[in-house]
Amino acid sequence: MTRLFVLILLVLGLLASAFWWLWLRPRLPDPAVVAAAYARPLPPPPGPMAVFHLGHSLVGLDMPAMLQQLAPQGHSYDSQLGWGTPMKAHWEEDEPIKGFDVMNAHPRYRPADEAIGSGEYDAVILTEMLELRDAIKYLDSDDYFTKWADLARQGRPDTRVFLYETWHWLDDPDGWLNRLDRDLVELWENGILLQDLARNPDQPAHVIPVGQVLSRFVREIEARGGVGGITSAEQLFGIDPEGKLDPIHMGDLGNYLVALTHYAVLYQRSPVDLPHELLKADGTPAQAPTPEAARLMQEVVWQTVTSYPKTGVPQ
Fold it and tell me: Which domains does the chain have, with CATH numbers?
């Protein structure tokens, strides 16, 4: 009898799960709806923007500081970060945020719920933890993206909501470049962005496609046999406390490339000829790319964001 009861519960659970996936969970919008949503670019921002970053160490402290130096005078930003933090943990009060005290011990910290709901930001940039497949499967990434996006929209209807596409571990068993090629559509778009579009067809979120920029830049330097002393993806990444290559966190060169991508999407301007000698968040000089490498980074960023309509940048 007990075994039969367990079997019945198992069957009911499977049926409930199937019902959820088939009927309750938002389906991907019709391709025509997606095309229409991204056919019209966002209007250019009228001036410097106030931006809120929600995420983890792949946002970090230095990249937003570099972005501010690239942006028009008056650009401001705040953030709430953690270590490998999913959007769910930022939302749920009873979920721990690892590294909270370390990542938010700076003047730019502001509590995310207060900030995003305030209506004080021109743009809210959200990103998800890695491994992204696990976050989508187990931590309801699409639901929590929409929760945060809706909070921003309720605070101010014209706030621009962006999904920051990050990257993967350099030693990913499926291949770093392969993951960047595959996961944009399979995970970032179908798993998160378009789920939100299904719920909000008249208020589409847009993408900051850093992963695609990294892929294009690395392939370009490999094809050229190196540019400005950069010959491989590893040189974009940082060094860990033991002096070894950090296979997930960007170094100064990588952060510069990430900041350029944010700039191009947010301001809809070519980053070509922007400064390449910048400061870190603590005020110390960042390692600068050579002029040749900086120029290629800037060109690759603009080529990427203007050939992907979901950025909201005119194509």
Answer: 31-37+46-307 (3.40.50.1110)
